[in-house]
Known about the structure:
Elements: E1 2-8, E2 11-16, H1 22-27, E3 34-38, E4 48-50, E5 54-57, H2 62-76, E6 82-83, H3 85-94, H4 105-115, E7 119-132, E8 135-151, E9 156-168, H5 172-188, H6 225-234, E10 240-242, H7 256-269, E11 278-283, H8 290-310, E12 318-322, H9 335-341, E13 343-348
Parallel strand pairs: 4-6, 4-7, 5-7, 11-12
Antiparallel strand pairs: 1-2, 3-9, 7-8, 8-9, 10-13, 11-13
Helix pairs in contact: 2-5, 6-7, 7-8
Amino acid sequence: MSLLFPLRSGSVFKKTLAGTSVAALMALASCAEKDLHIGSMPKEDLCIAVLPFEVRYDAATTNELLSEFIALDLYRNGARGIVGPRDVDQLFRTAGEPLPPTIDPYWAAEIGRKLKVDGVIFGALSRIPIWRGTKADKDELQMNIDSYYLDAKTGEIRWVYGAKEVTPGDHFVARLGQHSDMMVKSLLSQHSDRSEFGKPDCWAKPEPKPLAVAPTPTPVPSLTENQKRILKELTAPNGLLIKAEAFSERSEQLSKEAVSILRDVGAALKSPEAPTNVRIAAHVDGTEDSASDLRLSKNRAEAIKDYLEKLGVEDRRMKAVGFGSTKPIVPNINRRSRMMNRRVELTVLPATETP
């Protein structure tokens, strides 16, 4: 099904939903548990940019649907000066400034300033399979939505919408439509005069970067000997091994030793010689049941990925997996052997796999 609706003078935003009836989505009853906080919004905030939502876990493509639903619902409810997510992305790409993968309030304010809009809607979406024992049940998914409205003039967050629920996999897109409808109605309810909300042509394109002067390249810091060794091990067939001391027994908290190692790993991964994508694989020693072991190993891999991301390694370059106790390197017969099996391996991700 293909829908066309105007976003600004002389422009049309096209939205395609394969096999999905938008009218049916709008008609479904709203029954999700949600946490909604609405602050007072000044009446003069009239022009809104809807940014592409951040993907936090297994929500690729559906995050685009959610932001497009919001833009469509704003228009359907009477708003006119709306800059849709694809427009925002295209404008910044054309200007030579691709949007960052993670948009925080600082970036939202910067984007709002460049577009010269009054407000910015941004957020994140995750779609997490429900684990049944050692298997992920993709027929049932946990949906997490965090959405914000930022006053581009003051940089203040004026509206927050949070939702967390479990929904059947084949109803996921329909639930996105319902949440979009709830978000927009609560946002527009702050304006008594709908006709003034979103005046056409109240935004401006960001100015392209000047092409005459080439930017000064940022110097790449040289690696220490230890960081060079880590990079060499990382690209070897067996990868880089982080031993049991990275975590306390049955804990997901990184140890001081692990933090020290990961700082050098982060520096190595940011060097020009580093592999494009890496796999972070965590293993445990089998002292608990298989489901607990699998969950613990997955959380440990995610903890390392999160820390490397804080150090500046891009999320899209890393894949975190947990194998539980299914791949021991020695039999678990004593404390020493169990310590050998508690490990994290960082390896180059094959080109056939995506993070």
